[in-house]
Amino acid sequence: MNPLLAFDLDGTLIDSAPDIVVAVNRTLKNHGKITLSDEVIISHIGEGLKKLIADLFLEDNLEPSQIVELEMEFLRIYEEEMFNRTTIFPGVENFLSSYQGPMAIITNKNEKPAKAILSHLGLDRFPWVNVFGADTLEERKPSPLPLQTMMKLASRTPQNTFMIGDGIPDVLSALRAGVPSIAIGFGYTSISLLEKYEPKGVLGHYQDLHSLLEKLSVRA
User: What is its pathway (predicted)?
Assistant: First the structure.
């Protein structure tokens, strides 16, 4: 029985940073703020939209309702930008086409834009068990709930599941769910930060994922 592979989206399957950077800086400009470098914005990707906005407007001491308004504004701008520069990482489609087990997506991007981008890039053609966004369930990563729910849908146990992602929410949610994780070596978070959360392996290219899964499954 092949394991369930639960993938993150941004920085894992797709390189969406260029469009997110433009949308964030457009939002900042709308509020008279200085635009930020790619590196600063990319370091915030993965925690989810609310955290991204809250962090960038931290000094403003915004009310929760104002953060929601900013979030909606950013989403409108991002929906204008999200198909312009985002690409699929090399080797992703070959791997997804050849894997003979259940696959799922658990992202901290909201569900609607996540599904829209999957459709735009043609990644919706793969037989995902489900696609969970930040707003699909009551909790998002790093809560273990999305992984636990996805495992039930796929009829898999923690021992027969891998969480694959490039962010701390990915590896931390896996740790909390008792699921082995694989860290993405080319994503938006440095491996030195991810290693604190005990990933079982690091993926350098999707052409190596089959052999890495075999190695980790034998080791388990």
Answer: Organic acid metabolism; glycolate biosynthesis; glycolate from 2-phosphoglycolate: step 1/1
